[in-house]
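Much of what follows relies on a compact textual record of a protein's fold. A complete example follows; check for yourself that the lines match position by position.
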Amino acid sequence: MKIRQVTAIFFSVCVGCMTVYLLLSYRNSASVETETPVVASFTTSPEVPMSVSFCGAKIDLLRYNAYEGMDRELSVFTYYHSSTMLLIKRANRYFPIIEPILKANGIPDDFKYLSVIESNLDPSAVSTARAVGLWQFMEGTAKQYGLKVNTTVDERRNPVKSTEAACKYLKEAYAKFGDWLTVASSYNAGMERISKQIEKQGVKSALNLYLVDETLRYPYRIFAIKQIFEDPYKYGFILHPENLYHPLEYKEISVSSDIPDLAAFARDNGITYYDLKFFNPWLRDTKLVTGGASYTMLIPKSDKLYYKSSNRYVHDKRWVVR
């Protein structure tokens, strides 16, 4: 049995024994007037690091607003167990797509965590403000950075094309600010707003700007999820290779003619309509109108649609215990 597994079992036993002790002490206390037991578990505050690394720069977290901001987000992600665990599982599928595109465009690898906090790594995610996709583009911004959005196509839901569009934004923002942390904040609030507030408030770091709560929390959410992804076990997440989602495997078909019935198209290619929509979430209707453009359709390999054997692909070995 591996050392980490033994440690986990030992810790669980210790916690169980301590819980029983506390419960008995609680019930035997003279001040207790009820027989209702306390919750039989411990919730400990995660350790807040004094600094973090983001895009190769050391970010000091000693100042009260930085320390407390990080504490808040680290606590949320640590104890939002189901959602955080699913993020790691999905990353095994989508990080292999996102990382090479960031690298090819000269964008620091840490920006992959923006897609995590923006969309929970769900290409079909839609916010209350109608932002869509892995990178949560509004329709106007999406078109500005080269994505097609019309009645039958929404490339904000295309993992590859939306990541390429995000890179265009990030490079433009870096040309303006010359600082990746400020670029990250601008992704949430917009370049114009961040620029105006830096000038108005006279501060150098985006962390010290007075902004709406959502934007204030944004960089700390990135820092916190990065901390957890780099050492899930430290924060109580125990996953094995078979728990992670395997990458999508498919063949590509180039389409330049209209498809009046996507369900029939799916059947003709040996898959279900659901499969077609899942692998091509940018298809937003029951038909495809190309308008003379060419699109790449992903057709999943039929033998890869089943978990006949446990997943063995691990994109980042830090995510799992063996």
About this structure: Residues 27 and 56 are 52 Å apart (CA to CA). Strands lie at 51-54, 57-60, 250-255, 295-300.
